[in-house]
Amino acid sequence: MDAIREADIDPTPLTGKRVAIIGYGNQGRAQALNLNDSGIDVVVGLRDGSPRISGAHSDGIATASLTEAAGGADLVMLLAPDEVLGAIYRLIEPNLRQGAALGFSHGLAIRFGFIEPRPDLDVYLVAPKGPGTALRSLYREGKGMVALFAVHQDASGQAEKIALAYGRAIGCGRAGILRSTFAEECEADLFNENAVVWGAVPEILIAGFDTLVAGGISEEVAYMECVGELKLIAELIEARGIAGMREAISNTAELGAVLGGPRIVDDGVKARMRAILEEIRAGRFTDLLRDEEASAYPLLQAARKRARGLMVEQARQKLLD
Known about the structure:
Layout: E1 18-22, H1 26-37, E2 41-45, H2 52-58, E3 62-64, H3 66-71, E4 75-78, H4 85-92, E5 101-104, H5 108-111, E6 122-128, H6 132-140, E7 147-153, H7 159-169, E8 177-179, H8 182-195, H9 200-214, H10 219-228, H11 230-248, H12 251-264, H13 267-282, H14 284-294, H15 298-308, H16 311-320
Parallel strand pairs: 1-2, 1-4, 2-3, 4-5, 5-6, 7-8
Antiparallel strand pairs: 6-7
Helix pairs in contact: 1-6, 8-13, 9-10
């Protein structure tokens, strides 16, 4: 899979066009600011009374209501939380220009039918593979973040060129933009969130910390060993790859990894990972996401409260004090 670079991308599909960013959260703010710095005419669409309006104005970004922003734009980028995108689309759809482009940074709303776009619209995906804060900081450093792109609906015959020009304008062409599909991007992202970086890794850290403390190790030392070193391994893997990381650490650390890792991540773990991927593809995760939003997020609220009370969090605070 070859990455498409900035020099190979035609920026003219965005020339003279107005882009509406719907939402001003983690991705919305970063993409709006990067577009603005790239000379693109940007407006942010927000609900009346949104607390983010003042933040956008402080950043020098124009705002409008959701319907006004969408109705006055050639490209509309939906960057609000996935679970509310269906309701937002139904609200703005009557205002969308004939032949406008509709963009996403996550494939969920299309992959799982939250939105069925009007047939005259170009529908594309540009998904930076990292948080908006990093997307913004990399842009300001003259660097970029790798992104995936895809086209779901090509009404104009120019949807791919629009998607690539958009990715270039937010700085992703500097690092490389990879061709994908809405389904591939969505399923891989949800799997990672459930089963790997955001789901499994924090649970491993907590379990390791609890095991050491139960074995008589002080909370501060347990925290530094099980949580504090995570950044080090992440930086080594980013710089050298997994094989290079193994070669860079001590023999004791490498032997410990060789002996201990497969005992933790065994065939049972891999089977449960496959089950999670199957559940995602069957739509069970997105069904739960809809239920969470409809019920004011009871599972998420309880999980956040529980996390704040963990012993590992108290150990972290002791080290900071």
